[in-house]
């Protein structure tokens, strides 16, 4: 069986999720080309060494340049903080490596476009990490839309609600700093919603947004890991330079109306990545906190038994689920990454671009940027303008 | 338009619910024969006078004998405490009045049978107040079963969970005294489940139960109304002489298995009157706390969109709902009584027995008694034994 | 006990709901001043006569002018189609009658302001029919906000989703004609959301909206009642002149962000009038299809048991619920009107303005109009502009 | 870091789940003693070789005797079909190996006791695979009970509902044959409920059950994997020799009442492993199909905001969750096995018995057997009798 060697940059939250996907892929998807966990890179020698040992990487380095030019590496997986994506991706592309980059592709649309151009110029495969597409319930939504079972689409409404920074003493982690994160809820959470909209409904033509930073200063952090961090209320404080919440409305090319809301200030919502689609023949609803479920409604159900069906997308008929457990035995967050890597490996071995790829990453960034402009200029902005 | 004169005995919880049904019937069901609110009876002159004025009864008396023999009265509605049902019903039947009696029909099976015999001997109409049958969502469940849309029935499981006496200082109201109430959760809550089982699945052949009184003594009450009451922790105490919880298992004549649980010791459940039916072609689930909804599952739904549908039984296609509001505009507890009275008035005016009637009341009492025997004798008891 | 004589104009959907409220008020709220159902008005003699008889009105007329000047009438209840509100209200005010007008107050902001001025000039009481405020679960939300139990408010998101006109052959009823209805989903459904926002969060400062009519022509109707109607696919067709869906974003004076969506094109949603509030100390969620429930979250719950609580607002501690049934015995749509009329009667007898009154009606109309302008002009519009 | 060598027998459904747990343990629980995937055994050489390669076992054998006596092996993991457990476990114990055996421990109570005796005689560690204990939401339920936060326990009701054999043409797989599976829904599903009852509430004193085989003959299978299988309607047929559904009632030593239901004939329920506990201070509800959630109710919540809380047990305060993803990022079925293996490895390295162990396995078997006797003899059976 064919295999490809992977080199990965970053080993925190996303690094762990990706590592796990590589580690388990062959066990659950034995027909898929195997990713070999060759090399992992992190700036902190001790940290990356520990990660390599725990996650199962064959070796580690601390300089990403060494990794992206390493002759053994076929695929470069980039999940460093967002501000580092561009430089790494371009260097890796130039070195002829296939690219798998976490979202958002870059801090700006211009950067994202440069990355796409570099990848295309180098003729390498490129994938972007919109993992939520790969939840089987989301795949089912896509299937229903694609097969016309929801009819003409009228509405897409989506909200990604979290609550991890509601406490004003939560520290100023990198995700709250514009120079590293690019934006706040908008690029972190909204980007996922935008990609789901593109995946499920299609392209948007114009947008208008609004945005707010509710807590404008926060204590500097003393330690952090994943989304959690520690600080102290009497620590020195710094300015929050990203949005706490961003909302926008959109028109889609197919005539549908979109509403989007991303916030980190919704107590009780740990990770409510949720959307609803209404079409002339039916509707679907999804909430990532119940990621194995899709609510489905059809207008042509018998008159006396019409209602949203709670479909547990764990049957063999649902995407990817024949690789897992019997029906009703649910999967979790991390599984979306395995499915993502299935697509990556299949695409590389079949010599085609994976989906979603940098084109999708750029399209997402276009909307992010159009929304930003619409906020700054307080007007509707066409996607074609940006 | 034809009308009948009603005389009602009792004016508390059920008295209010019945009065409201009579009061509003013509407004929402103008095709139905009109019940005239002629006479109401209660032992407390001042209490019943106030109730008559508030509810809209033309007159009141304090002696039920006067009511049941009053020449103007066509229908006698009995919602006095359970220990008074028998004597009143028999007297009313002898006086040639139609009977509408709250459940449970009587304190014992023997009494219930006497009541049925008296009604049959007198040739009057007789109805028993199993109001939950008349929730549109329950009617939908019945329709699905009757039309074979759930196939062969395998399981009926039902539980009626409340929590109003969990606090051990809640006082010793009449519903906790065997000589007045007959039994506790069993006759109060379990009786409803048994009737729903009869309505939806059919008759049982044998049962075995278990029962418990968790709080064996309580302070005597100082006041009470509906299900709420006041007492004080240091009041004199008396023995609780009814069951706090009764469970039983049953076999149905059609081969289905039944499980039943009635308790007043389930914190968080204000009024969870709930059942599920599993058949070879589908399932339904009902919970009275969401009484406008029926969860419905069909095995022959398309493979990728199988799931319980949340049917909001508020469309015109659902029983009784064309009398109310547009779809999605839900109804409440009290509406079940209006629907019940629709059946009562239709039956009386069409010269047929209403359903459910005393035969159903007796059948319910047979199961209650068989369960009691099974508990006392620690063995399975056939319904045909009692 | 004091009483007031009511004269009502209109006898269809809202007329029935109001009639029922008057009819039952004294039974359930015996301490409240009694509304006497004196006179009902409708243009169709036979229709209004039937309604009067069914609903319990003492008399009927076909000319509303006769009603609003009738010396016996104290309160004029206006639930004629929206285009008739203004003329009737002003005439009634001039005749010194108290006013109870269905929402939206008028077809335009200017008309609504005239109505308010007329009422104030006449010194009469005036109420507007935003009945959803009076659901006990909504009252609980208000209480939590008012008592500071949700902290500083960050987000209000609301959507009113229906599906009764998704079928393109559904006929062109009056609610789809601008000259009668004023607007479509915006004034019909959005108006309720706006009023709830005012009630729960406070005033908005600026808005921007978008709107669409998905089905632009429909067959002319042959008959209609409530929200249902009959037509035929091959009937002559007319233009739909109102919006099928309107969305908007808003800023509130207190710094909160708002998102609103009203549509009649959401299959599976019969009457999803839903909102969520996120504050620094907690969140609440409401959905009218489960109107007895409020989902409540507090950030200061113990760390290991944080989660949205499903509060069944049927306990005696919840607004209006001690008038009804024991805990867990739910109420329905029509009960909101009884509570509304409690407020009306209390206000009139206490010689104070009811809440919500025409000031609230005008404020709602201001937002409706600002949104309309923002759509026409494709820009943010300040409420103070309109 | 210390490590132990594992040898595993069986490589199908449970074999895969266990393999995955060993494979990933170190990645997510780096502080835990490492299980080395040394040797896997299966009767089919080609099948087991493939499994070894996919899952990551160092070597494979086809004779379990070779495995249990292999000098390199420290821990023997037994997930062969239930009829093989006893012989393997006893041989492994005699060889001084620690034991990790899938449930049910054996086909009969006598066999289970022999296994426990053998393990105790050999002085080895022994664990039984009741994996549902290890769902974080279940751990939370246990914590709430153990800390007295639910008060005195009154009720435990549990049901394990599946629907994979509702179709009467589903073939006669080994799980439907008494000589291999021991029993049907009772030992497969009911055993989990019994163990959860022991874990959460404590021991039972007496039980009475009922049981049914709804489909008495089925076509012989042509192929099978996991819970799915293929057959053809016109294949030769064989008798189903196990129960399709088994229900029982129980008394617990602490005075609580228990009701249990296990069935494979509940359409719409793929894997509804569900329980509810009611105590004097609160209640909890769990459903495995939403395994990340626990519904929690406290009687001492403020009067106006009482309600079941939907606790998403994915916060760092919840058992095992600091090893996984940020709050709201849910886990799946397979994670229960990782947690189970954490306990196994910790116990072995700390030289203590893991929990649950063969004592728990025997206790579960006692209840299974007591229920069987109660069914056969149609009477209550004391646990102390069996």
Automatic annotation (TrEMBL), chains A, B, C, D:
Signal peptide: none
Record-linked SUPFAM superfamilies: Glyceraldehyde-3-phosphate dehydrogenase-like, C-terminal domain, NAD(P)-binding Rossmann-fold domains
Coiled-coil annotated residue ranges, if any: none
UniProt xrefs under Gene3D superfamilies: Dihydrodipicolinate Reductase, domain 2, NAD(P)-binding Rossmann-like Domain
Residue ranges of domain Gfo/Idh/MocA-like oxidoreductase N-terminal in the record: 5-130
Swiss-Prot/TrEMBL keywords: Oxidoreductase
One Gene Ontology molecular-function label: nucleotide binding
Database matches in InterPro entries: Gfo/Idh/MocA-like_OxRdtase_N, Gfo/Idh/MocA_oxidrdct_glycsds, GFO_IDH_MocA-like_dom, NAD(P)-bd_dom_sf
Annotated ranges, domain GFO/IDH/MocA-like oxidoreductase: 138-284
Name of a matching Pfam family: GFO_IDH_MocA
The organism's place on the tree of life at top rank: Bacteria
Protein name as catalogued: Gfo/Idh/MocA family oxidoreductase
Phylogenetic lineage: Bacteria, Bacillati, Bacillota, Bacilli, Bacillales
């Amino acid at each position: 069986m064919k295999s490809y060697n992977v080199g990965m940059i970053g080993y925190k939250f996303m690094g762990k999720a990706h590592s796990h996907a590589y580690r388990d892929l062959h066990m659950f998807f034995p027909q898929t080309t195997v990713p070999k966990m060759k090399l992992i890179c992190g700036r902190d020698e001790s940290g990356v060494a520990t990660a390599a040992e725990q996650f199962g990487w064959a070796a580690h380095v601390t300089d990403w340049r060494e990794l992206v030019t390493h002759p053994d590496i076929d695929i470069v997986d980039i999940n460093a903080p967002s501000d580092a994506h561009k430089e790494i991706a371009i260097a890796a592309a130039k070195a002829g490596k296939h690219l798998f980059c976490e979202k958002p592709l870059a801090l700006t649309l211009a950067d994202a476009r440069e990355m796409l151009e570099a990848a295309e110029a180098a003729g390498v495969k490129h994938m972007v990490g919109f993992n939520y597409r790969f939840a089987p319930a989301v795949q089912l939504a896509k299937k229903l839309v694609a097969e016309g079972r929801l009819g003409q689409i009228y509405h897409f409404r989506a909200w990604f609600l979290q609550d991890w920074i509601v406490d004003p003493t939560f520290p100023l982690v990198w995700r709250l700093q514009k120079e590293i994160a690019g934006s706040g809820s908008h690029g972190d959470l909204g980007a996922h919603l935008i990609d789901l909209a593109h995946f499920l409904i299609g392209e948007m033509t114009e947008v208008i947004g609004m945005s707010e930073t509710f807590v404008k200063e926060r204590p500097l952090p003393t330690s952090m890991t994943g989304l959690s961090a520690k600080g102290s209320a009497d620590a020195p404080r710094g300015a929050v330079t990203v949005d706490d919440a961003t909302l926008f409305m959109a028109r889609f090319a197919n005539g549908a109306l979109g509403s989007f809301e991303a916030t980190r200030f919704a107590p009780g919502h740990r990770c409510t990545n949720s959307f609803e689609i209404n079409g002339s023949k039916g509707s679907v609803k999804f909430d990532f906190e119940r990621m194995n479920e899709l609510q489905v409604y059809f207008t042509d159900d018998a008159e006396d038994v019409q209602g949203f069906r709670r479909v547990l997308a764990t049957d063999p008929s649902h995407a990817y689920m024949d690789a897992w457990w019997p029906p009703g035995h649910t999967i979790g967050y991390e599984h979306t990454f395995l499915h993502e890597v299935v697509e990556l490996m299949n695409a590389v071995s079949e010599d085609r671009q994976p989906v979603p790829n940098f084109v999708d990453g750029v399209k997402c960034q276009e909307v992010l940027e159009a929304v930003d402009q619409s906020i700054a200029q307080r007007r509707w902005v066409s996607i074609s303008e940006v």
